[in-house]
Amino acid sequence: xxxxxxxxxxxxxxxTGCGAADMTKxxxxxxxxxxxxxxxxxxxxxVGAQANVAVAQYLLEHELGYRVDxxxxxxxxxxxxxxxxxxxxxxxxWGHPDQEQRYVEDKRTIVNGGGLGVTGHIGWFVPTYFxxxxxxxxxxxxxxxxxxxxxxxxSGGKGQLLDGSxxxxxxxxxxxxxxxxxxQVVFAGSEAAQITQIQQFAKAKKPFLTYWYTxxxxxxxxxxxxxxxxxxxxxxxxxxxxVDCAYPVTPLQKYLNADFAxxxxxxxxxxxxxxxxxxxxxxxxxMIAEQKxxxxxxxxxxxxxxxxxxxxxxx
Length: 315
Known about the structure:
Layout lengths: L12 E4 L2 E4 L15 E6 L3 H16 L4 E6 L2 H9 L5 E5 L3 H10 L3 E18 H6 L25 E5 L8 H7 L4 E5 L3 H13 L5 E6 L9 E4 L21 E9 H6 L1 H9 L4 H12 L5 H11 L1 H5 L4
Parallel strand pairs: 3-4, 3-5, 7-8, 7-9
Antiparallel strand pairs: 1-2, 1-4, 5-11, 6-9, 6-10, 6-11
């Protein structure tokens, strides 16, 4: 998923064979290394973003001969790192207008690298088995009717709205307040923890209401139906405290450090050309998340069976 994140302080972690280095105190030794065939990619915590990076890394290393390093960092701090050249590219951004204005329009230290080819959407979902039994639950106006059935020990006597990581961009607390819903937002802590909770509910055929997003491989294992929130309109989410509308549909974008975009050679060209489908991303995500393959092995298998797709990306 995708997911956007709030502007919380984040820790940048360089993933190396020798352990983790605090990227808030030092730059990656591989980012913007003059004359060296090196690339540093930002990788977010959700599996779809990991799938993007895994395939890009595999092709950069095996087809173009680059040394690739990855940096795990929350979304908003990743923009700072990208602007400063501590990472070279973000391959899946869900829309950060403040950062776009600051770094792309004003400072010009970051450039748009083109669309990923995947359209993202955040929403509220219930399991399809519950929606079939209670069709009116898919209209937000009826949610209070089901609050008692969606209550958990963690939701304090109210219905539970399950969210993932507190670092993800979410309007859910404001929506609950502004729509006068008898619900409590409960954070699972991470995408993985949220998936585990959803799978447990589904196995027991229990009802649940969750913040979730597309594309995401879990829909193929736990069918879910979206709850219709008040329609999104441009600007309806401008004030975080007053949000009372649905989340927008977002064509996911790539962003490159401006210096890297100009001087990154074939690596920059490949990343600009990288564009695949939701189905492609979900294939790799499923291999990582469900089959428990390493990202590198999942990428290899996808590359081996999709030559016509990725060869079009090569410079």
